[in-house]
Amino acid sequence: MTESYDQPEVSREQQMGGLGVETDARDIRVIDLTDFADRRAEITDQLWAAATEIGFFQLCGHGIPQHQIDTVFARTAAFFALPESTKARYPLVKANNAGWESLSQVRPSIGVPDQKESYQITRPHMAELWPSEAELVEFRADMLDFEYQVWTVAMRVLSCFADRLGLDRNHFTKAHDPESPQYQSTLRLLHYFAVPTELQGVPGRWRAGAHTDFDCLTLLFQRDGQGGLQVCPGKEMQEQQWTSITPSSALITCNIGDMLTRWSDDELPSNFHRVRSPGAGEYQGDRYSIAYFAQADRNAVIQGPRHKYPPVTAADFLAQRVQANYRAQG
């Protein structure tokens, strides 16, 4: 049964297809994770304030070496540069959120495919979906190592939220187990296509339509100069005021997803975001980003500390979110 929690999302998302207006009034905070163990209380306060007030924040001092991030972006570009016939050998298996897709994701907010291709890495479901060593040397090893590094950062952030919610510090960590066959967190490599000359500067085009994420926490890696990401807190959606996030190769951009909103009894709100096409005078070329979606293992039970909603497994929760957000497409 679809619960009342799921009902508003379709209408809200469908309303987000307009241009809206841009505002720089929101403070997208940069939170330093340096000396995490010694500064846990301070960092927790900063994370909680940013998450509850805006739903988006950025991280520095996260411990992932810049050279590793740069290497993974190079591997990402190399994968997407493969011939389509090669990438097609590793097609997206939707039920497992693993594999390659192109121009196939249609947001209800805009009704046309996002102008991108992507490759999803979900650990338990990658059999026969990895490119061979002959096609991409060390691709698999580099991606799995990077995914684990990002998981570590995500679990640190979630442990702070667990502290603030009065849950066991490892509550979320135990529900995101990379060794479990039920693991469904995903590392998603993204390639937004260069804008054709004849469409450059045309208003109203989107590389990705407005949406909230279904997971607990999203960690996004971007490249300097490759902008377009904009955010609008759900509580402010009627005003349609969007804030652009300045891309940085050194920062991780994070947002709360629907799963954590429910798990926190609505204390941590998920946030609408989109990727607009570049305007006149802006960089029009290929845009690459890498997103890690921390979503609880399929068999994990989601219930907030105040029991505002009935318990639900992560698998059933995600199925409800997909149905609620995409049923408008028929």
Q: Tell me the Rg in angstroms.
A: 19 Å
Shape estimate: globular
Derived from helix and strand composition plus strand pairing, the structural class reads alpha+beta
Largest sheet: 8 strands, mixed
Architecture overview:
- The chain is built from eight helices and 15 strands.
- The protein is an alpha+beta fold and 330 residues long.
- A hairpin with a 7-residue loop joins β9 and β10 (241-244).
- 41% of the residues are buried.
- Helices cover 27% and strands 21% of the residues.
- It has helices spanning 8-14, 40-53, 66-80, 84-87, 139-165, 171-174, 258-263, 314-326; strands spanning 21-22, 30-32, 56-60, 99-102, 116-121, 186-192, 206-211, 217-221, 229-233, 241-244, 252-256, 271-276, 287-294, 301-302, 312-313.
- The chain is globular, with a radius of gyration of 19 Å.
Tell me the layout of helices and strands.
Layout: H1 8-14, E1 21-22, E2 30-32, H2 40-53, E3 56-60, H3 66-80, H4 84-87, E4 99-102, E5 116-121, H5 139-165, H6 171-174, E6 186-192, E7 206-211, E8 217-221, E9 229-233, E10 241-244, E11 252-256, H7 258-263, E12 271-276, E13 287-294, E14 301-302, E15 312-313, H8 314-326
Parallel strand pairs: 1-10, 2-3
Antiparallel strand pairs: 3-11, 4-5, 5-6, 6-13, 7-12, 8-11, 8-13, 9-10, 9-12, 14-15
Helix pairs in contact: 2-5, 3-5
Summarize the model shown.
This protein is an alpha+beta fold and 330 residues long. The protein has eight helices and 15 strands.
